[in-house]
Amino acid sequence: MLKTITAIASPAGTGAVSLIRISGPEAKRIASEALSLAKEKSQTGAKLPASRFVGLRKIRDAHGRVIDEGVLVIFEGPRSYTGEDVVEFTGHGGVVVTQKILERFIELGAQPAEAGEFTQRAFMNGRLDLTQAEAVMDLISAQTSLALRSANEQLEGRLGRICEEIRAALLGATAHLEAYIDFPEEDINAAVGAALCQTLETQEARIRELLASADQGRILREGVRTVIYGKPNVGKSSLLNCLLGYQRAIVSAREGTTRDTIEEVVNLRGIPLRLIDTAGVRESDDEIEQEGIAMTHGQLSRADLVLEVRDLSEPYAESILEVPPDAKHLLLLNKADRAHESWASQEGLKISCETGEGFPAMEDAIAQLLLLDEAHWGDHSVAVNARHQSCLVKSSKALEAALASLRAGEEPELTALDLRESLTAIGGVAGVVDTEEILGEIFSRFCIGK
Fold first, then answer.
1. Cβ pair 420, 382 in contact under 8 A
2. How far apart, in whole angstroms, are the C-alpha atoms of residue 77 and residue 84?
């Protein structure tokens, strides 16, 4: 028999309210007994509210003493989040009282839920496909409004629907091809072969479109790795503080103040920027500072965007700092309020961390570099994650092989094998095919109670 699970579904710590969830075949029985007085233990339990109706109820311990009074709701399966009978109790948000209620539900037969187990059951019971299940975690961890919109639209199933449409088209093509394998006396004529090629080419183009959104998906989920880079004392930490709106990094006229990297996230037009303040790059005999400079170079090698900061108050000199060729680069000329005359003809965006001069222009320049406009981010709803990308790459490669085989007039069995491989891979995106290992990896990243 399927076990009944329970967990605290609200954040840890003290709050106004807390929510404890039960799901499984014994959910209603456990809730009913948790409401009962001790003398009622031999009876069927206290009366529960009707399904989807709110009831004010008291949770009691084994001796009939009240643990807490709050709101109890029943969601009968299959019309519930998990597809099973679900009970949710919303009570006072104290740490002890919430834990006592959870312990009472466990005492009555529920088992502690594992990370992501409620959402995994929703997937297993057909309430969500795998892309929607993953979108739940994206929704919880969204740091910007654009990431939130993307997660919500994926939660509605758009990516899953697109992949299912591709899969259905490939399934039809595979069935058509295998019909010829079953009747070998019938050759694939030119018209049929051209139609099959056209179908495969169309679906391969759709997969490429999805793959093109992989970088957008990574940025929406993780943010743009933005490294603030430059020599010591040019204003890197001041820039970080100005962008954050509060003092996060120590600012000092003394060179080498920043020895370690500091990382924070800001929201730029719906896109999270992961700002990384680094140690100033220079020749140094200080062992700790050398380690900080080495970390700076390590951050640079992984940067999506480099904000190179130079000091306008010092006489102009050629930069000796190297910026990775793959990273987008913006040169910021700080201390514009004290600019030395030798900088008059030099290129770069002039700003002042002290007066705020140039900051709107800097935001526009970053947005332009990252293509933060509706033309490039309007279709963010199909931004894929790393697992989706892996499945789509496998599907695309197998589809390319099938096309090459079909065009070369090879045995249809070979083409069918490639198509089957492509079908399996595209089905893996939404979980049409799956393994316990894949599911375990996905849902282990969820929080307990979700």
1. no
2. 4
Q: Give the domain ranges of the chain.
A: 5-113, 132-213+388-443, 226-376
**DSSP letter (8 states) at residue 144:** S
Using DSSP bridges, classify how beta strands 328-334 and 305-311 pair: parallel, antiparallel or unpaired: parallel
pLDDT tens digits, 116-140: 899 999 999 999 888 888 888 888 8
- Fold of the CATH domain 226-376: Rossmann fold (3.40.50)
5-113 falls under which CATH superfamily? Answer: Probable tRNA modification gtpase trme; domain 1 (3.30.1360.120)
Which residues fall within 8 angstroms of residue 379, CB to CB, at 6 or more apart?
213
> What are 276's strand-pairing partners?
227, 263
Can you read off the two tokens belonging to residue 113? 């839920």
- Are the C-beta atoms of residues 309 and 321 closer than 8 Å to each other? no
pLDDT band at 378; cut points 50, 70, 90: low
Q: Is 55 left (phi over 0), alpha (psi -120 to 50) or beta?
A: beta
pLDDT at res. 386:
83
What are the helix and strand counts (H, E) for the chain? 15, 12
Q: Does domain 132-213+388-443 sit in CATH 1.20.120.430?
A: yes
Closest CA to 443 of 21, 82, 18, 1: 82
What tokens does 112 get? Answer: 């502690």
Name the phi and psi angles at 347, rounded to 5: -75, 150
Question: By the 8 A CB rule, do 234 and 253 touch?
Answer: no
The distance in angstroms from the start CA to the end CA of the chain is: 22
Helices (H), 142-227: 145-155, 158-182, 190-212, 214-222
Q: What is the pTM of this model?
A: 0.68
Tell which residue, 398, 349, 3, 9, has the closest CA to residue 166: 398
**Alpha-carbon gap, residue 168 to 445, rounded angstroms:** 30
Pairing status of strand 5-8 against strand 328-334: unpaired
Counting other chains too, the contacts that 423-428 makes at CB distance below 8 Å and 24 or more residues apart are 423/167, 423/170, 423/171, 423/174, 423/395, 425/391, 425/392, 425/394, 425/395, 425/398, 426/163, 426/166, 426/167, 426/170, 426/207, 426/391, 426/392, 426/395, 427/163, 427/167, 428/391
8 Å CB contact between 296 and 229: yes
pLDDT in tens, 280-305: 665 555 555 556 666 766 777 778 88
